[in-house]
Design goal:
It contains nine helices and eight strands. It has helices at 15-27, 40-49, 55-58, 78-95, 97-114, 122-142, 147-172, 233-239, 241-247; strands at residues 2-5, 9-13, 63-64, 69-70, 203-207, 210-213, 222-232, 250-259. The chain has a six-stranded mixed beta sheet with strand order 1-2-7-8-6-5, sandwiched between helices. A two-stranded antiparallel ribbon has the order 3-4. α1 (15-27) runs antiparallel to α2 (40-49), α4 (78-95) runs antiparallel to α5 and α5 packs across α7 (147-172). It is globular and about 60 Å long. The two termini are 33 Å apart. The model has no long low-confidence stretch (mean pLDDT 94).
């Protein structure tokens, strides 16, 4: 679950819904920034389905007693999370081996960067990384191996990470939040490309319905739709988080993606 807090409620976006938006973003990727246009659909599938392991978890969100907010992807315990990550990767792999490999590589890239952030988590992370890398080597061999495959995988994982982060940006703070108040992406999106000289790419709310990018890797401006729920704190106190979440109505956030003028 992706969560942020307002005065009287929590805004919750399901991880898979965010993933579907990441897939929409990948579908607009500039052809000249792809290693192999023939594999675009595999990339879109991986970007769209990379968080499907969260579907069951997010259908019944958990309350974090320590922080007194709903658990989010940022603080959900690692061991059960890894179980569902593996489940999601396997479901994607059964549809498309290359897409499943991309999802696995995306997660190992993310968690490799998390090593050292919390010493209590490092042993679990290293175990997960070792297991996934064994799978990755086997799947690469099934796809024929070789340097061309490694180069395409590296390029496609970078694209997935960018679409993942931009999609997260859309649902981690209130639309229209001024850049000076950004928390998670105050320094820009963490994944960059040769096409922009590996410089950080800034994302900024230009209005409540438009986000501008300092470098645009997409072939056109487009609009995405992100379903979410705003769950009143009073409802949580009365019914508990699960029932309050189920009682809350679905809403939609429509956001246009464009360049900064």
């Amino acid at each position: 679950m992706i969560v942020y807090e307002r005065e009287h409620d929590f805004v919750l976006t399901a991880q898979h819904e965010h993933g579907l938006v990441a897939g929409e973003m990948a579908s607009h990727w500039k052809s000249e920034m792809l290693i192999d246009e023939a594999h675009r659909e595999d990339l879109i599938l991986a970007a769209r389905e990379h968080d499907r392991g969260w579907i069951e978890l997010d259908s019944a969100p958990f309350w974090n007693d320590y922080s007194q907010i709903p658990y989010s992807f940022r603080d959900f315990p690692l061991r059960p999370r890894f179980v569902f990550y593996r489940k999601g990767i396997e479901e994607v792999r059964e549809k498309n081996l290359y897409a499943g490999l991309l999802c696995s590589m995306m997660y190992t890239e993310l968690f490799q960067n998390n090593l050292g952030a919390n010493a209590n988590d490092d042993e679990d992370i290293r175990e997960y990384l070792n297991d996934e890398r064994e799978h990755q080597l086997r799947w690469e061999q099934q796809l024929g191996g070789g340097e061309a495959l490694k180069l395409r995988l590296k390029n496609d994982v970078e694209i997935m990470l960018f679409c993942d982060q931009l999609s997260l940006f859309l649902c981690m703070e209130e639309p229209g939040t001024p850049a000076a108040r950004y928390d998670f992406f105050a320094d820009g999106l963490g994944c960059t490309f040769d096409a922009c000289s590996r410089q950080p790419i800034k994302a900024e709310w230009l209005s409540n319905e438009k986000v501008g990018l300092s470098f645009v890797p997409f072939d056109e401006d487009f609009t995405v739709v992100m379903p979410y729920k705003s769950v009143p704190k009073a409802s949580i106190r009365k019914f508990g988080l699960l029932q309050a979440y189920r009682r809350a109505e679905w809403k939609e956030r429509r956001v246009s993606i464009t360049g900064m003028s």
